[in-house]
Amino acid sequence: MSSIVTLNHCDKNYQQGTMIVKAVDDVSLTIERGDFAALCGPSGSGKTSILNMIGGLDTPSGGDIILEGVDLSTLDNAALATVRKNRIGFVFQSYNLIPVMTVYENAAFVLDLQNIDEVTKHDLVMTTLDNVGLSGMASRRPDQLSGGQQQRVAIARAIVTRPAIVLADEPTANVDSKTAESLLDLMEKLNQEQDITFLFSTHDQHVMDRAKRIIHIHDGRVASDEHRTG
């Protein structure tokens, strides 16, 4: 496998009053193409900070992050936005759907930012909605969907651009266990059949049981990195 993203001795510090809190402490890590990996740890362990730095939503206080050969620290805000738009898919625990938009419009949102032509966009969105089990729901709005269906829309939006990596922050946090398993079935299928790379941030045992790689984060550091087979 080839590497998609590499973190080299990354730190992340936050100011809290007069104190400096080190959320991420000297993390070096490589995510390979095809990984189905999970950053695991309790709240406050630093896993979401790591995910946000990989996604270009936050910048490291030290060290560097290389995404597909590009050092993110060398990019200005506009260039970082372009990388996020074209190479990274995001799935959030709160779905982050736009309530006034239909399922189709939410799934097409990033394609619109990329100025994809209407015919190509339509084909990509409808195929992706079919792939995530939302056939026939393109005209619905988020408030007409269950939590699991809303998260499927978020997954569709994340993968429709064929990104290098999908970053999923606690994607099963707001759904019941049956729905969580269904969402994980979907993401595992996308990983296996379409070779989409997933990196989760989670403390959900459902996700940890299904991940092919478990990266335990403790006090901002990598405590262990376990690759599973089978």
Task: Show the helix and strand layout.
Layout: E1 3-16, E2 19-32, E3 36-40, H1 47-54, E4 62-67, E5 70-71, H2 77-87, E6 88-92, H3 103-107, H4 109-113, H5 118-131, H6 147-159, E7 165-169, H7 177-194, E8 198-202, H8 205-210, E9 213-218, E10 221-227
Parallel strand pairs: 3-8, 3-9, 6-7, 7-8
Antiparallel strand pairs: 1-2, 1-4, 4-5, 9-10
What would you note in describing this structure?
The structure is a single chain. With 230 residues, the protein is an alpha/beta fold. Helix content is 35%, strand content 30%. The strands form two sheets. A six-stranded mixed β-sheet has the order 6-7-8-3-9-10, sandwiched between helices. Strands 2-1-4-5 form a four-stranded antiparallel β-sheet. Strand 7 (165-169), helix 7 (177-194) and strand 8 (198-202) form a beta-alpha-beta unit. Helix 5 (118-131) packs across helix 6 and helix 6 packs parallel to helix 7 (177-194). The chain is globular. The chain starts with a strand and ends with a strand. The model has no long low-confidence stretch (mean pLDDT 94).
